Every structure is written in C-alpha cells, then in structure tokens.
C-alpha cells in the first residue's frame, strides 16, 4: 500500500513539474491563435484563458506568411535536411574508422574529436566566417551547411555504438574476403539505426536553432533562416507580436514533433554511448 501511495505521489509531482515547464509553450501557442490585444490585455492575470484563447484567429499565421516566413522555414528545413544526410555519412564513416579499424594514432584522433565538441561554436565562428569569405562562399547555402557537417558529438555517439558490436563479425567478414567498406555498409551500418537517429537529431537541432552563424555568412534576405527571420521581425519603433508568436510556434513545433516521434531511438543512442574502450 505504501509503495503504491509513493508511486502515486511521485507521478503527481512529475506531472505537476511537467505542466510548469509546458506553461510557457502553451501560452506561446495560444498567443499565436488569438488577437495580440487579447494576449497583452490579460497579461497580469493567470487563468485558463492564459493558455486557451477567448477568440480564435489565424490572422497571425497569415501575417507571417505575408512576410515570407514560409520561404525562411523552407531554408531552415533545406539546410537542416542536407546537413543531416551528409553529416551522418561523414560521422558514421569517421566513427567506424575510430571504432573498428586499428591504425596508429587512433586514440589521439578520438581525443581531439571529443575536445572539439567541448569548444563552443561561438569561439570559432568568426574565423570560420572569414574563411568562408576568402573562399567566396558568402551568401550561399553551402556556407550555411558546411559547419554542421563535422559534429564531434555525433561521431562520439556512433563510435561508442560501433564499439558495442562484436569485433568477431568484422574478422569473420575479413576471412570471407570482405573489405572495410563492405563490412561497414553490410554489417555495422544496419545494426546502428538507433545511434544514427540519435546522431541525426543532434545534427538537425544544431542547424535548426542556428542564429549567429547565418548572420555572419548571409546578408541576402532570401537566404535567411527562420530564427534570423524572427529576429528581424522586431522593429525599432513597432513590432507585429502576433506574427512573431506565430513564427516562433511554427519554429518550435517542428523539432518537438520530430523528437516526440524519435525519442525512444534518441534515448537508446545516448544510453549506448557509455564508456567503452
């Protein structure tokens, strides 16, 4: 009886804490679906109408579309999608080499990769932006994509997963005449779907929330990503907050939906990245 009571109390506490964290998100979504005047009129009071609009409207989303936000959202999806595909290919091959192929200097290389994702991207963003300018890549989609391809955390997660695959499989394939590429493609890659999804989510979120980097390498509005477009919605003298709420809601719901669908794979990939030698 005491155990059941304890579980009930813990469950109620967990639900209550979750609702506290969800409250700002629910307020944001409600603000996107009601007139701006209603949002700020009841700002001092917290009641059910804080998260449930009295008057429903899609005018805020229409305003966002009129300002070209759909194009900016497409730019973010394009950059994030390409980064995930190419980044996973690069990260998986690097992780396979570090986990399976025994070559001199393998551990120092892995140490350097681990240190790379401990360095804040902001610390190297400006030198990278100068390199992009020197290479003539400013105001191109390529400049937006390149920094997201080499992600040390994605390599780390995949490498730790590959270490959990018995090395005897690679040895047996070698005895049958298979090369490294075939071993990687036919044996290791099919086994690491959870790790690939987890690493893909990391690559996706890195590009989806990118703000500083697009500002440094892109000045043309038709190449703006969604976070930059939202920031530009704030004017010096006036701001269409309804449009901002609608854009922010759209920007937040897409990764939330992806995480909800793939969360179990993400948890599996993180759980499998424990200490392995």
Rg, rounded, reads 23 Å
Mean pLDDT: 86
Strand content: under 5%
Largest sheet: none
Portion in helices: over 70%
Question: What is the CA–CA distance across the termini?
Answer: 45 Å
What's the layout of helices and strands?
Blueprint: H1 2-32, H2 36-41, H3 48-51, H4 59-66, H5 69-99, H6 106-116, H7 121-134, H8 141-145, H9 152-163, H10 167-175, H11 180-191, H12 193-208, H13 212-217, H14 226-232, H15 241-271
Helix pairs in contact: 1-15, 4-15, 5-9, 5-12, 6-9, 9-12, 12-15
Describe this structure in words.
The protein has 15 helices and no strands. It starts with a helix and ends in a 6-residue tail after the last helix. It has 277 residues and is mainly α. The longest helix is centred in the N-terminal third of the chain and has 31 residues. The protein is globular, with a radius of gyration of 23 Å. The relative contact order is 0.14. Helix 4 crosses helix 15 and helix 12 packs antiparallel against helix 15.
Task: Output the keywords.
277 residues; mainly alpha
Summarize this entry quickly.
This protein has 277 residues and is mainly α. The chain has helices at 2-32, 36-41, 48-51, 59-66, 69-99, 106-116, 121-134, 141-145, 152-163, 167-175, 180-191, 193-208, 212-217, 226-232, 241-271.
